[in-house]
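dumping this here so i dont lose it again. seq + smiles for 2-acetamido-2-deoxy-beta-D-glucopyranose
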Amino acid sequence: MASAFRPLLLFLLLLPLSVTANLHKSKTLLKSSLFSSTTTSHLNDTPPTTYFEVTKPIRLPKTQPCVYPILHHDFGYTYGKPPVLAEYIPPSHCPSHDFSKIVLEWSATCKGRQFDRIFGIWLGGVEILRSCTAEPRATGIVWSVKKDITRYYSLLVKNQTQSLAVYLANLVDRTYTGVYHVNITAYYYPAEKKFNDFESNLENLASGYGSRADLILPISRNFPLNDGLWFEIENSTDTEGKEIKIPQSVFRAVLELYVSFHESDEFWYGNPPNDYLLAHNLTDTAGNGPFREVVVTLDGNVIGAIWPFTMVYTGGINPLLWRPISGIGSFDLPSYDIEITPFLGNMLDGKTHTLQFHVTNALNVWYIDANLHLWLDGKNTYTEGSFFSIRSISSTGWVKSSHGKITTKAIQKFSYANSMVMGNNGNVQMVNQEIRFDDSVQVKKPYAFSKENKSLKRFLIDLYSNDMDQGNRTYLSVANVMLGFNENKFGVRGAGFRMPVSSLENLQNGQGIKVVKNKLLVSGVGCTQQKYKCEGNKFCYFRNISSSNYTILNDEVGNACN
Ligand SMILES: *[C@@H]1O[C@H](CO)[C@@H](O)[C@H](O)[C@H]1NC(C)=O
Ligand SMILES: *[C@@H]1O[C@H](CO)[C@@H](O)[C@H](O)[C@H]1NC(C)=O
Ligand SMILES: *[C@@H]1O[C@H](CO)[C@@H](O)[C@H](O)[C@H]1NC(C)=O
Ligand SMILES: *[C@@H]1O[C@H](CO)[C@@H](O)[C@H](O)[C@H]1NC(C)=O
Ligand SMILES: *[C@@H]1O[C@H](CO)[C@@H](O)[C@H](O)[C@H]1NC(C)=O
Ligand SMILES: *[C@@H]1O[C@H](CO)[C@@H](O)[C@H](O)[C@H]1NC(C)=O
Ligand SMILES: *[C@@H]1O[C@H](CO)[C@@H](O)[C@H](O)[C@H]1NC(C)=O
Ligand SMILES: *[C@@H]1O[C@H](CO)[C@@H](O)[C@H](O)[C@H]1NC(C)=O
């Protein structure tokens, strides 16, 4: 099998069942990435290393934020336990209750040895952050994730007690000693007149959704559970989801999906076809080929799909690549929006409908849930709609509300290319994959130009890996990886006047070498280079940064637009 992945399997085979079950949850050897010994003699004198993901800073209004510490928790042995809960009620001490920005901050420290752990944060069942922990060092690490959660506004300011749930399945024993000490804080920035203008509209446009939804319904699992609120999709026939009923005054609906892949499918883009595995007698190796599609259905009919970004978690491929610069998206996994307004005609009957997910070719396990963002008509309490056609994943429908009869056309276009070369009985692997994933939403009101928002995404991954058995349960692994996330957004007015909204180019290259003995990483080194460039109207941010062996070599940050 894939070179990088093979040791993982050997690893799993060596483990007692109970631990396998845990690893099964969220780990592979690729992530196991731990030093078996430390060479540092002054563990307590050395300051902790700060890890970070390169991304643009959140643009904040100039107002003073109200700070709300929501949760402090030490995640020790949390595996198989219920999510950690905090009571959430919007802050009453703020002078204003009109906020233009709400930011969630996760900050954590950890020391010792630990896997990278996937975790989620849900408010009232609505997922607001999916992330992966950083892997600690003996001398300790610290990192923080800041996320603009303003799009969940209606939920965040709801004047009632809701539960905020955090699930992070950690396991602590003599070997895996890292406990995650976590603070979760929210910052509420009161609206500033100036900020509420054209620029912020453009920013809304850039974020892919217009004004905030009036109501957000969770499509996630209910309590009680000893797990995350996400659904677990274990194979290609497994279908999970929920029954929902929406108010009859809805005139727009967007489904936001959170997706992450683990265990046998953590490196799905490198999974060989089953034929190859059979021919090489690799029966214990993850297969099903390198194509995956997350499909969303409404009452059994396809309404949209996601071809996910090939994220690499902080312990993936070679953990030394992601210290201190974390992999693209690993600290703040992208969520994906699907415009489902065209289907409102089918949903506005006051009856219950079934929203479900499945994953083409899935192997165990995918964590998926969704948030249904709904815009309500303030004047009509009843809207009516009709659905016209669905051809592949193109859909058109109309909704009549106090805004008039609005026809919405949503189109998703996908393309995919993967080439995989394997040699030396699966110990050498070269994968090159590109996904193009385009969404467009066109809205037409009577007697007005149509307006279209388009997003063109390109997800790239190139992986070279070579594992060399050194005997004595030791192997040497060389891995190079290129990871890219590009997105172009623009608006189209009428018959073709194009307005650029934003563009993002985010590219990482990494080269690593590691020596792994019995499941522990004993030595190695990783180098990473990243170029990040994000441009919007009157907004630009770029960063050119590289690191080697935990040290930043160069770091250039700019915000000048050409
Ligand atoms: C969490 O907050 C406490 C109290 O403010 C602070 O002492 C601690 O350093 C914080 N920890 C992290 C990881 O931010
Ligand atoms: C929230 O609800 C409480 C009790 O119902 C009420 O006293 C308070 O004024 C409300 N706060 C806001 C900001 O509406
Ligand atoms: C496009 O974005 C604008 C600005 O955020 C928003 O008002 C509009 O509803 C969006 N249009 C569509 C068709 O999604
Ligand atoms: C797929 O997963 C579901 C849910 O765990 C299970 O019921 C079903 O038997 C599995 N199907 C196959 C073919 O393994
Ligand atoms: C495949 O592997 C199994 C288990 O190691 C072994 O018993 C069997 O002989 C192998 N078959 C071939 C065709 O190599
Ligand atoms: C194999 O590993 C054991 C334990 O780590 C060590 O004592 C031994 O010297 C190693 N043998 C070789 C040939 O490297
Ligand atoms: C990034 O920095 C490296 C090292 O300083 C330099 O060689 C490279 O040209 C820079 N790239 C860009 C796009 O600025
Ligand atoms: C990495 O840096 C450490 C010190 O932080 C040093 O001891 C080690 O030799 C370096 N490794 C490589 C391969 O450069």
